[in-house]
Amino acid sequence: MFRSMIREVTNGCVIAGLLAGLPMVAAGQWKAKDTEWPSYAADLAATRYRPLDQINAANFSELEIAWRIKTDNFGNRPEYKLEGTPLMVNGVLHTTAGSRRAAIALDAATGELLWIHGEHEGARGGAAPRQLSGRGLAYWSDGKDERILYVTPGYQLICLDAKTGTRVEGFGNKGAVDLKQNDDQEILPDLTTGEIGIQSAPVVAKDTIIIGAAFREGMTPKSMRNNKGYVRGFDVRTGKRLWIFHTIPKKGEFGYDTWLNGSAEYTGNTGVWSQITVDEELGLVYLPVESPTNDFYGGHRPGNNLFGETLVCVDLKTGQRKWHFQLVHHPMWDMDISSAPILANITVDGKAVKAVALPSKQGFLYVFDRVTGKPVWPIDEKPVEVGTVPGEWYSPTQPIPSKPPAYSRNGVLESDLIDFTPELRDRGKAIASKYHLGPVFTPPTESKLDGPLGTLTVGTASGGTNWPGGSYDPETHIVYAFACTACAEPIGLVRAPKTVSDMNYVAGTAGKEVTILRGPGENAGADSPMPPKQRAGSGYVALNVDGLPLLKPPYGTISAINLDKGEIVWQVAHGETPDVVRNHPALKGMNIPRTGQETYNIGTLVTKTLVIAGDGQITTTTEHPRGAMLRAYDKQTGKEVGAVYMPAPQSGSPMTYMVNGKQYIVVAVSGGAYSGEYIAFSLPAAE
Amino acid sequence: MPRWGAAMLRPYGIGCAICFLAALAASGQEAPAPSRSVWDGVYTEEQAKRGEEMYRKECASCHGDALVGGGGAAPLSGGTFLSNWNGLTVGDLFERIRKTMPQGALGKLTKQQDADVLAYLLSFNKFPAGKTELQKQVEFLKEIRFEATRPEAK
Which residues have a Cβ under 8 Å from the Cβ of A553 and sit 6 or more positions away? Predict the structure, then answer.
């Protein structure tokens, strides 16, 4: 019965691929063609680039839906937050989908379902900190075997035969590795409920699978103690652990002394939840490490806290640290490192540099020599405001890049507030007056009823470039990155009742009951049981003026940044002006240029000539019915050259490939009333 | 560890997939625009108060007490929320709540409680209260347009 539903992949697609001449390299290594998309971000360098040009400025607006697939039935409930980017190899598209986080394989030309694999994890899946379909999976081949690897919500690494979707018996324990074990720590309180998981796609490089870790949202943790997010390498053939990197150093290891009072022993989180990149030639892995326990209060972990919010380069074979650069000392803004490091071979002042470029929530594009870790342009320690929250430890300086300039707003001053009209400006100022304002790295405040309620920030938890990361054009040496420039985030701290947390302070607002904040997707997966009763209250305050954003436009941008020069080449507002702005009575008669949109999950795709990204919000205009547009920009100038309608916002980053001589663009859409769907666009057949 | 094998997945046969796509295509059909909107006083203040109580108990831990979301949970006020639902009906929003909320505890709230929470969302977003309560039948709620901005007086 199982065979009957599987299309003859082996007889059709794969053999066709081999006849077409799959490039083979030494030692049985397999190499993808540039018409394929073999890794989450196109390649291990995380470029999101393919040199395809069948879809171009002249015809982008003519795109039609080639096929589509809803993900509602890949789990026992629909999901409205589909974030995956599929892979495409040998004419087969692989991705994760649905509240089960099923792995599925589709015919890349038609969308026909070839196979599906899902894991029923019961209570373990239901307790997972990162649920729903995740961001994708990894493909590996030695030219003969083809394998798919993904991590379940319950933190199991699953290895499947890419042709059939069945577990590879010889890998780990009958095709699975329990990632909660053999992790140089005991995952507490137990393997079922112990908090650790991941939603990003695994990476495979030279037969080594690399897996990071993620946790619940870290704004109001129950404890200063938590499990730690180490990174491990596994053998793709056997599932055997090859190495581990301790993102919080153990006693005796480098960096342990940056955790004063022995706080490295109990502090947790500090995982790598974003995408990992690898330079196979150099044998180096680039790890973007997130925040340590409690996103906004570090009073229980005095010191700089290596390797929190640090870019760490480790050896692909051993996991040994080669170099590191801490972007934020003693993190307290939830800046994480949100984006995949991008590998770029550039030319600076006439010299070739093997670089790594890192987009960020804080709107800086950090650029390093990826061999040595030395900044390509100076990143100087600059004095920053020292806060007054009792018990907090403050770094007096933070590293600030001299080049390129910040590509996204990363602080809130009065000049950043809404200013369409004097009345709106006054109302915006009245809201902002309740908060502490300042530039990047202005510290959080204790929330007080008589003010401030907190620090009003942008470029922190959900600002700038988030998990989709950027794109890179290896021909022109330009990075493209979406940024939310108006995702304002008030950060206030309140004393935590002992019934809620053992921390001195957690995120909250004075006068409001403190409770544990949960993140999207938590307790939403197919294995989730009834949750414990939640207490009322939370930490955020509305930041809009009659529905209008508190900060002035642009609300969201795409920037093109030249890495040879460290300069912004162009920047455009991305996303249709929201309905609430276009139709607002207070703005009637005003000519407001496109504002872009406040959203934090837009990823870009680069082709031979275009930069492509979809809107993150629904709009209804005279040009299109209720929906969102997938837009194409001339990558040289930023001019919009085409757009095609989607029924819902882009919620996963677009990818592209060629199959049977035809180029496709696939994008995940979802949100609001629209449940998850992958849509494939291609040009209409010649008439 | 219990698991699904691909062999167990009979429901994903080709026939079903075709039915599914056909149903999807059908759902895209436009219905005639309803005559009432959220600006016509479609809930009562008392109902919104009941809804607020329920919201605090069941929704605020993710969506925040000022309905702006948290850690990426969808905002239920402001521009993004209004954009998400503008042009749809109150019934569409009601159905989304019924289908997915509260997270991990589907079916915990009755239809009446969901309607009350919905009344609170409308109240918080400054849509005017009226003299009759928001009903709990989705068919009736689909007769109420969700409009982000107040229509001009005729």
Answer: A486, A573, A592, A593, A595, A596
Query: What residues of A are in contact with residue B82 (Cβ under 8 Å)?
Result: 547, 578-580
CATH number of domain containing A186: 2.140.10.10
**Minimal C-alpha gap between A476 and chain B (Å):** 34
Residues of A with CB below 8 A from B23's CB?
A: none
- Chain B interface disruption, residue of A580, A592, A602, A670, most B CBs within 10 A: A580
The dihedral formed by the CA atoms of A302, A307, A310 and A316, expressed in degrees to the nearest 10: 180
* B83 to A516: CB separation less than 8 angstroms, yes or no: no
Q: Work out how many domains chain B is built from and give that number.
A: 1
User: What pTM does this model have?
Assistant: 0.89
Note the pLDDT tens digit of each residue in B69-86. 765 578 898 878 888 899
Cβ–Cβ contact B101 with A under 8 A? no
Of the ranges A94-108, A488-502, A521-535, which one carries the lowest mean pLDDT score? A521-535
Rounded to an integer, what distance in angstroms lies between the CA atom of residue A277 and that of residue A263? 29
The residue range of the domain holding A76 is 3-682
* Inside any domain, residue A259: yes
Which domain CATH number covers B96?
Answer: 1.10.760.10
Helix axes B111-124, B45-58, angle to 10 degrees: 100
| Residue-number span of the structural domain to which B111 is assigned | 45-145
B9 part of contact set with chain A, CB < 8 Å: yes
A687 DSSP assignment:
-
Within a domain: residue A687?
no
Number of separate domains in chain A:
1
Phi/psi at B54 (5° precision): -65, -40
